[in-house]
Amino acid sequence: MSCSSCSTGKDGQPRGCKNNGTCGTDGCNKLTVFDWLSNMSLPNGAKPFDCVEVRFKNSRKEFFRNNENLSLSIGDIVATEAQSGHDIGMVTLVGELVKVQMKRKKVDAKSEDLPKVYRKASQNDIDIWQKCRDREEEIKKRAREIAIILNLQMKISDVEFQGDGSKATFYYTAEDRVDFRQLIKDMAKAFGIRIEMRQIGYRQEAQRLGGIGSCGRELCCSTWLTDFRSVSTSAARYQQLSLNPQKLAGQCGKLKCCLNYELDTYLEALKDLPSNDTKLFTEKGLAFCQKTDIFKGILWFSYRDDPSNWHELTKEQVKEILGKNKKKEKVTSLEEYTVNNFVKEEKVFEDVVGQDSLTRFDRPKKAKSRNRNKNRKKTSTRKVNQSPETGQGKDSAGKNQSGKKPNNRNSNKRRRPNNA
Q: DSSP letters of 351-402?
């Protein structure tokens, strides 16, 4: 992954910023917002919005106030206010569209507690920030070793340094509450920096790390998904999916977020469809629902005494039978309804390639065999006549065996004696 300003190196990372998909120009950044108001000028007397959106490592974004009226544009590296010291981030959005994003994320644009942008980052700030980013993998590996020695049931998934290198935030996942006080002391002694531990969920961990899903595309949480809604097993039941945890679970180990994408469509289609607990009373016996095709509106019923034999009914036919059952009337059988449902659908295949024959590239073998058979028949039907003078056979056409007609003039002439 790279953008126009970052060429790819040998290790697969961009050479320019080495952010592995989150480049400085924001061209291939995760969760990038397109500034469609950039080419529009402000009306007369209007001042530009004084807040900007700044992105830090991975997809963490925050809003800052530009009190110094700096001329900032997308891709500028700035020094921002932090709890202690300063942090280095990248501007991802400026102008009026920032106001829309703050309203969407429920951030008060008039709040006085909004952090500030100090200045544009100097080369020295960028060098310190880059050195800290290069140390993250080594420190993460060492922190995991310390956690294993202390027998802590936790997983350190990522490390994020502050821009000035004075503080590091460790993101971890754990099932239960973890007492990491001794861990913080050991890591502060080993690394010589201030430590902050922040617990995240398994979905947030997959969002930060990224990956490829079972569909073959990048994870939704690491590309465009911003909010994580709860996913229950009822979403799979409504869509008639098998409750197999290996197929329904994603990279995070939880149920896939995409189970909620089509759930509303299924719920809307199920409103006009009888439930799976529907029972039909017939004179032949009691019938239970075995299977439902939601979008086609077809239900399959079977008798209690014959569960292996299914009968296909439409939702209108089922409602008609239920209406008679409410009046305490029984239909004779399900077979009288299923007779009209069997309609053979002729499969129509479209000619995509332009030629229907699969053997169009094969050599025509039948034409040669026919010619050979004709030649054999001709040779068998020929009548061979033996000539006493030439000793060659003749067929019915008067040709000799060599295929030439005999010279009649020479053959009719009598041989003259030598004395003459």
A: -SSS---TTTTS---HHHHHHHHHHHHHHHHPPPEE-TTT--EE-TTS-BTT
Q: Work out the percent of the chain whose per-residue pLDDT is above 70.
A: 73
Beta-bridge partners for 303: 287
The one-letter amino acid code at 287 reads A
Q: What is the largest CA-CA distance in the chain?
A: 148
- Compare 294 and 24 and report the one with higher pLDDT: 294
What sign results for the dihedral spanned by CA atoms 17, 195, 80, 40? positive
Q: What is the tens place of the pLDDT at every residue in 285-323? A: 899 998 889 988 889 999 988 888 898 888 898 998 999
Both tokens assigned to 63: 């809003």
Q: Domain map of the chain by residue range?
A: 51-119, 128-200, 207-270, 279-341
Q: State how far the Cα of 250 lies from the Cα of 213, in Å rounded to an integer.
A: 7
| Tokens standing for residue 307 | 């569960």
236's tokens: 């799979």
Rounded to whole angstroms, what are the CA distances from 379 to 99, 323, 382, 416? 97, 83, 5, 38
d(C-alpha 236, C-alpha 251), whole Å: 18
Mean pLDDT of 259-270: 91
The rounded Cα 57 to chain-centroid distance in angstroms is 25
Q: What confidence tens digit (pLDDT) does each residue in 159-187 have? A: 999 999 899 999 999 988 899 899 999 99
Beta bridge partners of 301: 289, 311
Distance of alpha carbon 260 from alpha carbon 266, whole angstroms: 10
Q: Are strands 286-293 and 298-303 parallel, antiparallel or unpaired?
A: antiparallel
Q: How many CB atoms lie within 10 A of CB 337?
A: 21
Q: Domain 128-200 falls in which CATH fold?
A: GMP Synthetase; Chain A, domain 3 (3.30.300)
